[in-house]
């Protein structure tokens, strides 16, 4: 099975020169096989103002925060934008506006709670637990190289978590979409867990890796089809399946999810359905403000960055973002909100990787950074699209995307590669925003090395000492793909350490966690905008994937 390790350790691939030759292709591909290249440089339209429902829920979120009187760090704003309406928007909004308020605008706790009970369903009631059709308590051939009974029993318990995390949108969401921020999806979803009641984009890759180990191929395919449905509707996969996430995406891993499911099923129809949607998603990442041109040595290179279409407080974190921007001059707040939302698009929300001052979120500069990993993801996406097109007989498209991939490799080597560090580094654009950009070697991120997996001790949740399953998994697989004994040994060592801390934390807490404290084996991580979460989709997927890859000998104890 193809892995993501390629993104971070090895970017070597043969040069491919596109030709004008074409091969016969399925009729279903004829409509897009002759499409022009993605619009590299087209201007993107800004996203519209938040809809009426989201606007109302933001007001309710703010009122809840004001009414509660709690410290901002103790208030979780997300549940309030997940509330389904019992009645129509206008009726609910009128009732909210009519609530009695004191002289300072606050609503009493009793009045506010009564209003919520009368006009709203509970957060999460619009998505229900669903029994996966392909779940078995102990799948055939499950983890045949795990010989330690304690480890095997734990793995079966992790496998059983799919029963808790598989959900299905209730019919009311389809009947009254104007009363829900949840986006209806055609197939069961696998959610991360806890406060994250909806499917998330890049989380789903590691969920799928785990589902395939669990022989839950139909569920894995359904997850992919859901994301394809979102991308077909919106033109891209949103951060998550909520309307308030439609202003940003997450790291573009959909093509790799398709690859994983195709490798398990050889489903040609899946490729036929996915290919035009993936090309459309690719266009979004390589056009408008996502795409940046940088000149070096008389040649212009094109690379991509995270850039949310949003310069306001995030609806799901409205009160938090207002607080962060409180002491920022008003004319600078839209840029700060844009950089906050763009950091969320990166999946690393938040890390000092994106900040000038690692202790101040107000110094986020996400949109000024060309990330090494995003461009590696897109490099992989270009290769996947080229492969899918070739399988389907669309030679022109395959050659075209092979050429795009070659151009990105050249650009990454020219702009991101550091001979001194022997690494691809993030590249910081100048603050003045003057274009065209001209390469400046001092703009390579030599000091803040988060993208190179050097620990940052700055207190953000994507900084040390927190360890996250997806980053561990990519490094582990990347080292294994080097094909060298030293890389393989280090890969296995990191995998065993990661599995051990997951195992010991599970024994202490009875839960799988979103993140772990890598300095204290057996402890979960902390920090961030919310309390530590459990469940947990991608952590489960990585545990199962690693155990499937490296096994576990009978005489190697995890508990010691």
UniProtKB/TrEMBL annotation:
Pfam families: Trehalase (PF01204)
Keyword Glycoprotein: no
TM helices/strands, residue ranges: none
Cross-referenced SUPFAM superfamilies: Six-hairpin glycosidases
EC number(s) on file: 3.2.1.28
GO terms, biological process: trehalose catabolic process
Protein name from the UniProt record: Trehalase
Catalytic activity of the protein: alpha,alpha-trehalose + H2O = alpha-D-glucose + beta-D-glucose
GO molecular function, one term: alpha,alpha-trehalase activity
UniProt KW Hydrolase keyword: yes
Lineage of producing organism: Eukaryota, Viridiplantae, Streptophyta, Embryophyta, Marchantiophyta
Top enzyme category: hydrolase
Source species of the chain: Marchantia polymorpha subsp. ruderalis
UniProt keyword terms in alphabetical order: Glycosidase, Hydrolase
Similarity comment: family membership: Belongs to the glycosyl hydrolase 37 family.
